[in-house]
Amino acid sequence: MAIDGKVALVTGAAMGIGLAIAKRLAADGAAIAMVDLNGDGVEKAAEELRASGAKVTTFVADVSKRDQVFAAVENCAKELGGLDIMVNNAGIAGMCPIMEITEDEMNRMQAINANSVLWGIQAAVAQFRKAGTKGKIINASSIAGHDGFPNLAAYCVSKFAVRSLTQSAAKEFGAEGITVNAYCPGVVATPLWKELDEEFAEKTGSGEGDTFEAFAAGAVLGRPQQGEDVANQVSWMAGPDSDFMTGQAVIVDGGMVFR
Ligand SMILES: NC(=O)c1ccc[n+]([C@@H]2O[C@H](COP(=O)([O-])OP(=O)(O)OC[C@H]3O[C@@H](n4cnc5c(N)ncnc54)[C@H](O)[C@@H]3O)[C@@H](O)[C@H]2O)c1
Prior knowledge:
This protein is of the alpha/beta class. It has one domain: NAD(P)-binding Rossmann-like Domain (Rossmann fold). It is built from eight helices and seven strands. The chain has helices spanning 16-27, 39-51, 66-80, 103-131, 153-173, 191-204, 210-216, 227-238, and strands at residues 7-11, 31-36, 56-60, 85-88, 136-140, 179-185, 249-252. The chain has a seven-stranded parallel sheet, sandwiched between helices. Nicotinamide-adenine-dinucleotide binds next to helix 1 and helix 6.
């Protein structure tokens, strides 16, 4: 297995894309530190992984808080013996026309989606240095980190920020053999999109599922993206076949945004 014996920490691992990534990296042979704000959710998800034979630990943290992210990494190193792969996945979305975005909403989106990635990079690099190891950092950006979308401006800003952090960190830590990349999914069938679809329905009068379907229909491959599609990409980014890639924010979206 490609990452047999490695240790991976995944944030936002209780459900959606993070859970799919945790399952896939466990199947690839890694021990997994599952981190989430939702303690019951992450524990339930961990039980599922343990039942399939994976070595898993859980930790409750709010990734927008620097000290909590550092504590999550420290716990991972203590429980699982180190850290090799840091997946800064946790995030939120929110539908809001530009003219209605408040200071609080802008700060919340930035703190949870972008600042969290900065804290995750810092905590992982501190651990890699302490252990004298190289490592891989993999961040969640989005097609919304490459293109601006109407009614999603605050989200887009936070995902563009992840792309820029990914580039800066790749340049700062490349000499230490630490790689930093981002995955950029399209429209993935997860609880996040269910909530977003409901927000669009409430604010625009669209029917349940209509917004998700309309967005997903933009993919030339003709089906909505699944968490497993993202996990396949992250599996490659976490493994040795991507060793010479750094600073990239790679779109895998079924053919929706072309770069
Ligand atoms: N679903 C999509 O279409 C899509 C597309 C592109 C990028 N993304 C990105 O992928 C990542 C995962 O998205 P998803 O669709 O799986 O979302 P989701 O809402 O389905 O799951 C997110 C998980 O993150 C956790 N979380 C939320 N805020 C947190 C916090 N402050 N601290 C710790 N954990 C927290 C939640 O409890 C949940 O378990 C996000 O960064 C998202 O922006 C998603």
